[in-house]
Amino acid sequence: MDFHFEQELKSQGCRIVAGIDEAGRGPLAGPVVAAVCVLPEGCVLEGLNDSKQLTEEEREELFAAIRGMAGIDFGVGIAEVAEIDRLNILRASFLAMSRALDQLKVKPDAILVDGHLAPSFGIPTIPIVGGDGRSPSIAAASILAKVTRDRMMVELDKQYSQYGFRGHKGYATPEHLSALELFGPCAIHRKSFDPVKGFFKQVEEQLDLFS
Question: Which of the listed CATH numbers 1.20.1250.20, 3.30.420.10, 3.40.190.10, 3.40.1170.60 matches domain 4-209?
């Protein structure tokens, strides 16, 4: 992984180039978290990679290194479960990204975003498929987003321990699906996601029987 994409934009006159990514599009529960990162010129982060390719320990170490780096600018944004259900997950992800951008000290001249869609932030935004494994700026953002969200899910596990959020972070693992069958959804489950949506539909149908 090198700074090819960042350097290409800088050669076109973009002085500040940010990378942006999100964590938590797929889970059945919990928020979606986005992070944006502007790495200092010439920085070296040993082991930097797509957060999904790293162990939890490696992510935690890089998370601390990124946040502690001199000259770095970063922001983190969150879209809550109610916003995901109201907007849909894609629009909620873009909302979280917009909130992350609002946290930056200096507005970037261009943004590199992981994926094939370029959200409209009023700034030139370039989508890169597999960007979290190809751009250091996006990779750093992916780690900030992933670790932040994982920590949130660990905290939520204390409140909803029966679902095992500490382990699966809200994803549709067999353990999580079994807990859903046993306990039904809780307040942080996404009502618009299958199979959670099915549980709420069953409740509505049962209520209709008594109405």
Answer: 3.30.420.10
